[in-house]
Write a structure and sequence with these properties.
The protein is globular. It has a two-stranded antiparallel sheet with strand order 1-2. It has about 240 residues and is mainly alpha-helical. The chain has helices at about 5-30, 35-55, 60, 70-90, 100-115, 135-145, 145-160, 175-195, 205-225, and strands spanning about 125, 165. The protein has two domains: about 1-90; about 120-238, no CATH class. α1 (about 5-30) runs antiparallel to α2 (about 35-55) and α2 (about 35-55) packs antiparallel against α4 (about 70-90).
């Protein structure tokens, strides 16, 4: 099958996320947390754009020799799991050897979660915590809680990957999307503000970051407990 340059270019665009992940890793190795989150943030932008581009040029048909889903999963694992786990070792949030043990827990459970074919429910929510470790890591770095609290959160989220508790996809989960999507956008703005302030934002930003984080973490479970009309699993993307 003929490969169209435009379709292959989209694969290359997606693959640039690996280079961005490497830059984030280099920053993390030097303890440059602001730069690390900056590179991860750029990677998130690429991750948000490449899907619509791939559908527009129909990469499945026009660049069929490369599997975009596998490519995306590899980069997502690097960006969302591996680098946050590496960073956790060096942030000082957990003393040695607990930081390393927590990182091993994140990387080993995260790769199993990414390989689970049941990770998406019928309403396009995630089944179990979706291993987006860069998000709780940023919140933990901003708040620097006691080591016992950090460890408890890490273990709870790691175990949460293997439950049937729902976690929303702010764009693809249709129910309450008109509320959840703005909350997600506000979270990203607050995260960017925190990074700009070298992970030490003003108190108002810290409070709002915590509130939006808790909303995004628990709203899917609330929707699951109160499904409304019919089963939440019957909802479809619109």
């Amino acid at each position: 099958m003929t490969t169209r340059p435009s379709a292959f270019a989209v694969h290359l665009f997606t693959a640039s996320g690996a280079a961005l992940a490497l830059m984030a890793l280099v920053a993390a190795s030097h303890g440059a947390w602001r730069e690390m989150f900056l590179w991860l943030g750029i990677g998130l932008v690429v991750d948000g754009i490449d899907g619509p581009l791939a559908r527009k040029v129909d990469v499945k048909r026009n660049a069929a020799n490369w599997d975009g889903i596998i490519l995306d999963l590899v980069i997502d694992y690097l960006t969302y799991v591996f680098i946050p786990a590496f960073a956790l070792i060096h942030t000082g949030l957990l003393p040695a050897p607990w930081g390393l043990l927590a990182a091993l827990l994140i990387t080993s459970t995260g790769v199993i979660y990414f390989a689970d074919t049941r990770m998406k429910s019928k309403d396009n929510s995630f089944s179990g915590f979706p291993a987006v470790w860069h998000m709780p890591l940023l919140v933990l770095v901003v708040f620097a809680p006691p080591a016992w609290a950090t460890g408890t959160i890490v273990v709870a989220l790691a175990l949460g990957q293997f439950t049937y508790l729902k976690f929303i996809h702010p764009v693809r989960t249709a129910r309450w999307r008109t509320l959840n999507l703005p909350v997600q956008l506000i979270w990203f703005l607050l995260a960017a503000w925190s990074v700009w302030e070298n992970l030490d934002p003003p108190e108002i930003a810290r409070v709002l970051l915590l509130l939006t984080s808790l909303w995004l973490l628990f709203v899917g479970i609330v929707m699951q407990i109160f499904p409304g009309r019919g089963s939440a699993d019957d909802e479809v993307e619109v």
